[in-house]
Amino acid sequence: MTLATAAQDSSAMVGRELRHLRRYPLFLVASVALPVLMFVLFVYVFGDYVGAGLSGSGSTLSYVGFLTPGILVMTVAAGALPSAVSVSTDMSEGIIDRFRTMPLARGAVLIGHVVGGIFRTVLAAILLTLVALFVGFRPAGGPLAWLAAAGIILAFAFALTWLAVAIGLAAKTPTGANSMTQIISTVLPFLSSAFVPTESMAVGIRWFAEYQPFTPVVGSVRALLTDTPVGNSVVFALAWCAVIAVVGYAWGLRSFRTKTA
């Protein structure tokens, strides 16, 4: 099979996923609804109190600047969740087994799910950014910082979407896939620096928060958008993205080859 044929097969599978997004817009709504709800809740309920701890002024806007990058990364995680459910649905209904019998390029089906998931995640991230700007987020970083932050977000979206696809293939039911990805999209962001600095956490939780993947990704995006020193957080963020992507790709490809409905 030639490279052109493989690209054509992958393009067809991407088109299939984009049609699903158009027919089932609730996937996009679900990807952005929870992060927006968390954003509004934390800004208007806890903003003054947490803002006082961050700047000493009790300003809600100071917390908006701190919170927005964390919620943006949380949106990326939430955007990856529907990919697991979509893949698990295809598996449980036997569609993937049918694709295996067709002369399709190896991995084209998975590439379609991944690209479709990244496209959905980018749309959700743009919507969340617009909400943050409306609320009062005013990033200090320049155009290059915005591009660098967007690159990190895309890399994280790519990695998490591959992991979600692998989870969807491994899960026995779409409900199980949804439950498994909830840990990634909800629990891990709360146990990171997305909502409060890790220095304010208890010792055991702080240790976990500092060494899990969300914290360096959030820290990198936050430093770039607020024009503060980045340090080595970008290195750790990209390293985590690479590890997650490789694990998700290898696990997903193996499950795709061996598992049946």
TrEMBL record:
Residues 26-259 form the ABC transmembrane type-2 domain. The keyword Membrane applies. It is found in: Cell membrane; Membrane. Its main location: membrane. InterPro entries: ABC2_TM, ABC2_TM_bact-type, ABC_2_transport, Nod_factor_ABC_transporter. Keywords: Antibiotic resistance, Cell membrane, Membrane, Transmembrane, Transmembrane helix, Transport. The chain crosses the membrane at residues 26-46, 66-87, 108-137, 143-171, 183-209, 229-251. The keyword Transmembrane helix applies. Pfam families: ABC2_membrane (PF01061). It is a multi-pass membrane protein. Belongs to the ABC-2 integral membrane protein family. This is Transport permease protein. The lineage of its organism: Bacteria, Bacillati, Actinomycetota, Actinomycetes, Kitasatosporales.
